[in-house]
Every structure is written in structure tokens, then in C-alpha cells.
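Open question from group meeting: does this chain pack into something compact, or does most of it stay loose? Before anyone orders reagents, we agreed to write out a predicted structure and look at it together. Recording both the input and the output here so the notebook holds the full record.
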Amino acid sequence: MDLTQPLQTQIGRRPVKRRRILMELREQIVTGQLQPGSRLPSQIELQSMYETGTGTVQRALRTLEDEGFVRADGPRGTFVTDHPPHVAHYALLLPDERSMGSSSWSHFWAVIDRQLSKYTATPERQLKRYYGAGRGAGSTDYAKLLTDLEYHRLAGLVFVTPPFAFRGTPILNRTDIPRVGIMPPDPAIPDVPTVYPDFTDLLRQGVERVAERGKRHVAFLGTGRYPETVWQTAVEKMQQHGINTREHWIQHTSPYVADAIEGVVRLLLCDPSSRPDSLIVTDDNLVPELGKALEKLGFADPQRLYVVAHANLPSSSASTIPMDRLGFDTHAILSRCLDLLQEQRLSSDELPPATHEAFGAKFIRSAGYLA
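C-alpha cells returned:
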């Protein structure tokens, strides 16, 4: 792939000679003319090559050092770092920073964000946050993202949300930028490889857990309608185990309105003659308020209502009552995303065809349940 073509033509009002030193040394590192560990020409040699003074050369080298391309080693000289940013630094594109900590900031985003600490101390793979992915070119960090790509400070992009807002921008239009999305495949963005939590597997395993508990009447609670193919898997698994559900037991609600969650719970459990004995929750953002509602209405005992709920591992959203959890390993998902970005970067041609990989759910038994 040609990584030397800039994303922007505007590169600022830098002194011409310092800019030239920066661009040429950076390009030599990116294209492999200067390999990791190799020594750069001395400052005296650079001054002679570019017919400039000591200050100009030092400022250019300091910029390259700040960017992570080189390291100074005293009188021995300046060397290319073992893991320069164009092969080791990755952008994690998150929603708007202003919503962090608010009710609209999902637990999945929070868990992914916390995973970055695992990638800051590892020089081979460093993830860097860029906020405002949902607003595309109008986002908080869009200009910074373009600049970092222009100067080869990034090895690839990880979209935490579908990048629809970036359509028509260089972020999606360029064919030489490694990209991957943590999302199901979408025909609207066919060229972006994806790694995604397999909710078909979550529903399948959820029904199996219900069957293992000897329950036969299951309700479902999520935040949106299940795709037909996903739901069909659950139906087939219920038929296999002799489990039934009812139309009004399949409910969807907002995770950010406590009264709405309690209202749904009341609807599910109000009629003793038509009440489910188990509940599968497919969005962990619902769990905190759901637990409060079930406790308030007297359904905290798992023998009375068995609950198995979605989780984003390694952490899970807090519940006031015991619930079994079915979760997706966010660290493994992020690691696979970086593997795919490296494969794209090392491709000899333009980006290879997009691939789509599903991650299955892992079961965690609540400490509040009897073995």
C-alpha cells in the first residue's frame, strides 16, 4: 500500500526547511528506507544535507521524537524506534466525549474505553482515543484524526460504532487506510471488515440456560427488535427444549428511562396465571434498573424468576439481584480487530476484501445462584 500520499494538502505554515526534513525523514521511516533500530544521519550531516542550522535540525528531530518515530540516544545519535507509530499506533473512534458518563454513554462503550489501559504500556500495539465518531467530519477530533493519518502517526482505525457519518470523507473513501468496525456486517459500508458480538449465539445459549434450570416459560427483554435470522435461532432452540413464549412476553424498551423498565416488568409479571418463569435480557444497559424493578416487585429470588442477562466482559453492569450472565470478551474482540488491521497493513496491494467475524458469548454463573 502507498502510505506516503497525504490525506490533506494543507500542512500548515512551518518553516520550509524544517518541514522538508520532517517529511523526508518520516517518509524514509514509513517506506522502510530507515528500518526500526537504524541510525539517522548525525545532526551535522543533516545540517550539511539540508543547508540549514543546528536549531532547525534539532526542532525537526524533536518533532519526530514527540511523534514516536525516533529516539535520541545521547552522543550515539538518533535512532528509529522499534515500534514507530505507522505500525504500532491505532485509533479507537468513540462517540462524543461530551456524553461520557451520561445515561446515553452505553456500558459497551465504557468497557471498550477502559480496555485502552491494556494497550498503553505495550509498545507493539497502542490504542489512542478519538471522540465524536457519530458526527463524522463535525466531530470533536476529526481534524486531529486527519492530521495524524496524514503524517502517518496511525496504523489503522477501529470504529466502535457504525461509521455512517464518515461517508464521503477520506476516512472511508481512501482505499489505503486499514479499517475495522466492531459491528455486524452492513451492506451500506461493505468495504469495512467487522468483528462483532454474536447475538444469535447469545440467544441460543440463553434458551439453553433456561432449559437447564428446568424453566419452560421464557420472556425476552431488549432495546430493539431482533433480526429475523437471530430470532429464528431462538425459536428453534425453544422448540427443541419444549419451551414456550408469548407475544406480549417479547418486550423492548429504553435503558435510560427507569419508569419505562419498571412498566415493562409489571406488564410481564402482573398476571399470575400468565407469567413467565424466566427472562433473557439482551442488553446490559437494562440490567441496573431491571434489577431494581424486580427487587421492588418481589422477584429477586431466582427460583421465582430466573434471569440470564447480556454482559460486556471482563466487567458487567451492576445488578441489585443475582443474575446469570452471557457476555462477550471485549479484550479478545479488540485484539482481533488489531490483528485484522495488521493483516491489511501488510497486504502487498490495496486493502484485501472485507471479512466478517462473529464472537460467541461466554457464560458466567452468578454467585447468588445455587450450583
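Observations to bring back to the group:
Residues 1-14 have pLDDT under 50 and may be disordered.
The chain is about 35% helix and 15% strand.
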